[in-house]
Write a structure and sequence with these properties.
The structure is a single chain. The longest helix is centred in the last third of the chain and has 24 residues, at 247-270. The protein has a 6-stranded mixed beta sheet with strand order 6-5-4-7-8-11, sandwiched between helices. A 3-stranded antiparallel beta sheet has the order 1-3-2. It has a two-stranded antiparallel sheet with strand order 9-10. The chain starts with a helix and ends in a 5-residue tail after the last helix. It contains 10 helices and 11 strands. The chain has 2 domains: 2-31 and 89-218 and 273-294, Rossmann fold; 39-85, no CATH class. It is α/β, with parallel strands linked by helices and 299 residues long. Helix 1 (2-11) crosses helix 5 (150-158) and helix 6 runs parallel beside helix 7 (198-206). Residues 31-38 and 40-44 have low confidence and may be disordered.
């Protein structure tokens, strides 16, 4: 139990969890889950909240006849109810080797965001799933629900290790096949994909998820402090390059990085997805309570 409490403290402080208790996740669309939940939709079904009446037709369930109206009008009417739906929240976390970098580290930053968003969903009795991916999906915890299952989320995030190459297209394809129901999807990554991000995001957008792409970089990646003759190595595939770091090269790197991030943002925005760029030196609680609130994801 003490270990679990330590892991809670590492991801979410009690003070911040108290703030999260007051929040709820909101989708820009209304999604149908396979199981009836606590979230009310506009579709008429058989839950406890009354919506309207319609005239009785042969074959209707007699249990829903409104006998009070029949006593007054001597006509048969069926009571209609608002059907309740689940809100599904899925969080995909990049655990490729490049995420094990920076100070503060990108992996821990992503896990803290994941823990906070999962907690908000669980306390509101939404269905929460978490996935890790590198060269495809790695580990998962699917469909947990209720505040008491938060310990499973903490244990899941505590197991995270960053290894191997990132293959976003494969991971997104696998996820879209395993997760056909629509809902909110948070994708936490640095999006450093040699093969590009477009194909992976196409799989997500094709399923019409309410998609949030959150690009996480370390301060060293945003503002590199390097100089001299260096041999740079790709941490994921060991590709190496001999370079001389000059002010002109740093400026070129920063322009290229800015252009890459802008293209990713534009790609998401033009297709109805939301995009956020953040450095790990930005307090992660601001991402939850400020950015997501402004974008309407939480209230």
């Amino acid at each position: 139990m003490a270990l679990t409490q330590e892991k809670y403290q590492e991801l979410l402080t009690p003070e911040f969890m108290t703030k999260l208790d007051q929040l709820a996740l909101v989708s820009r669309k209304i999604f149908a889950g396979k199981l009836r939940g606590e979230r009310i939709s506009k579709r008429k079904g058989e839950s406890v909240e009354f919506a309207d009446h319609r005239s009785y037709v042969i074959g209707d369930d007699l249990r829903f006849l409104d006998w009070n109206i029949y006593a007054r009008l001597e006509k048969l009417f069926i009571k209609l109810f608002l059907e309740e739906e689940d809100l599904h929240i899925s969080i995909l976390i990049d655990v490729s080797k490049s995420m094990d970098w920076g100070e503060p580290g990108k992996s821990m930053y992503a896990r803290r965001i994941a823990a906070a968003m999962a907690y908000i969903g669980l306390v509101n009795f939404d269905r929460v799933s978490l996935y890790t991916y590198a060269d495809g999906l790695q580990d998962e915890i699917v469909g947990v629900r209720g505040r008491r299952t938060m310990f499973k989320v903490v244990e899941f995030l505590d197991r995270v290790t960053c290894e191997g190459k990132s293959n976003l297209p494969l991971a997104c394809k696998q996820f879209s096949i395993r997760h056909p129901q629509q809902g909110i999807v948070l994708l936490l990554s640095d999006f450093f994909e040699k093969s590009g991000y477009e194909q992976g995001l196409k799989y997500m957008l094709g399923r019409k998820y309410d998609l949030y792409a959150i690009q996480i970089l370390s301060p060293e990646e945003i503002e590199p402090r390097l100089a001299g003759d260096l041999r740079l190595m790709d941490v994921e595939d060991d590709d190496a390059a001999e370079v001389t770091i000059s002010r002109a090269l740093i400026s070129r790197y920063k322009r290229n990085l800015e252009a890459y991030c802008h293209q990713l943002k534009d790609y998401c925005n033009r297709r109805g997805a939301s995009y956020l760029f953040t450095g790990t030196d930005v307090p992660f609680d601001q991402i939850i309570t400020s950015y997501f609130r402004r974008r309407g994801l939480i209230k």
